[in-house]
Design goal:
CATH architecture of the largest domain: 3-Layer(aba) Sandwich
CATH topology of the largest domain: Rossmann fold
Strand order of the largest sheet: 1-3-2-4-5-6-7
Order of helices and strands: HHHHEEHEHEHEHHEEH
CATH superfamily of the largest domain: Alpha/Beta hydrolase fold, catalytic domain
Radius of gyration: 21 Å
Distance between the termini: 45 Å
Structural class: alpha/beta
Mean pLDDT: 80
Low-confidence stretches: 1-5, 88-99, 253-269
Helix content: 40-55%
Number of domains: 2
CATH class of the largest domain: Alpha Beta
Number of strands: 7
Largest sheet: 7 strands, mixed
Length: 359
């Protein structure tokens, strides 16, 4: 589908969309059906694309629209539909009601016959970062839970408890009953733990909670002396090669920060990092009786304990798996295939254990 020229005879929506993509992605030639993700687009660039869309068309789209419409042609059709009918109401579409579960539940990957995996956003709030991971999973629907406050007319939830309650309701729109497979990236893992606790209170089983490089609240507040002691122990136990790589990673991280490439990814032009971290600071973490798997990024984590501080708060089994990359690159193309294979293996084991229990 190609949108038509404007009523005034000016450039069509799709022509203007192509121009936006070429400017933001800095590529002189982009086809109508080229995928944003295949072109190497980043979340930072996605934010700029959507900011330009708002400026050009006076239309506000949630970043999750890019998962439904990843090409210039498809995204232009979204804009055209919103221009013609602002009440459009579909999953991930701009007209989705803020009170609808689809305002938070984003089908990153719909395909597959296996039980769906539900994964909570990181501190930035958006779920674009999950696209590569979902694409690599085998035969499994993948739903991202994006933060309230990304869509126009909505505001961030002020507490982890409110986020968890909202996301549990959203999940029931797809899977009314357990057992569930939950996860979260970075601080989203804390929300996933609280969701699992809430599901347990209603009698719904949670077969597994996956913590994607999530640090237990408070672990960053350990005294500096304790962090340095952990660093020395980790460097001694892992050998000279690891020590050299850690030093190189630290230099690269400082350079990236100096160039403005580090830090959390913004969420659709709305900075949700501060309210999320404030909610995390207020959250009173209690022990979760179920099982969890922590995927710990192998790089730049040497000042943290091997379990990222989770052992006292996980009543069931806690498995720690080292994943390639660092906190900000574990979903990069070079690393995500390995992470997806590791994740799919633990999800299948959890499903098997659940079936053996008759769930």
């Amino acid at each position: 589908m190609t949108t038509s020229a404007g009523d005034d005879g000016g450039p069509s929506v799709v022509d203007q969309m192509l121009e936006i993509w070429r400017d933001v992605l800095e590529q002189g030639s982009i086809g109508l059906d080229a995928s944003f993700f295949d072109l190497g687009g980043t979340s930072m660039q996605a934010v700029r694309v959507f900011t330009r869309i708002t400026e050009t068309f006076n239309v506000q789209l949630g970043l999750s629209a890019l998962l439904e419409a990843p090409t210039p042609n498809e995204l232009a059709a979204f804009v055209q539909a919103e221009l013609e009918n602002p009440t459009t109401d579909a999953i991930g579409h701009p007209g989705t009601s803020a009170s609808s579960p689809w305002a938070n539940l984003v089908p990153v990957s719909r395909g597959g016959e296996r039980r769906p995996f539900f994964c909570v956003h990181g501190r930035g709030g958006n779920v674009l970062t999950f696209q590569r991971l979902a694409r690599h999973l085998d035969d499994r629907p993948f739903y991202g839970l994006q933060a309230h406050g990304l869509l126009p007319g909505t505001h961030p939830d002020p507490s982890i408890e409110m986020m968890a309650a909202r996301y549990c309701r959203a999940i029931r729109a797809v899977q009314p009953n357990g057992p569930y497979l939950l996860g979260g990236f970075s601080g989203g893992g804390v929300v996933a733990i609280e969701m699992a606790r809430r599901f347990a209170t209603t009698g719904d089983a949670v077969d597994l909670v996956v913590l994607l490089d999530t640090f237990c609240p408070g672990v960053n507040e350990r005294p500096r002396s304790e962090q340095l002691r952990t660093l020395r122990q980790n460097l001694r136990s892992r050998g000279l090669r690891y020590s050299a790589r850690y030093a190189g990673d630290m230099v690269a991280s400082r350079l990236d920060a100096w160039r403005g490439q580090g830090g959390p990814e913004p969420a659709g032009g709305v900075d949700l990092t501060e309210p999320f971290l404030a909610a995390l600071d207020r959250f009173d973490l209690t022990r979760y009786d179920g099982s969890a798997v922590l995927f710990k990024a192998e790089r730049l984590g040497a000042t943290f304990p091997a379990d990222n501080g989770w052992t006292p708060f996980i009543g069931g089994a806690l498995e720690v798996i080292e994943a390639p990359g660092d906190h900000n690159s574990m979903f990069a193309e070079a690393n995500v295939g390995t992470l997806a294979s590791q994740l799919e293996a633990v999800l299948r084991r959890a499903e098997l254990r659940g079936s053996e229990r008759g769930e």
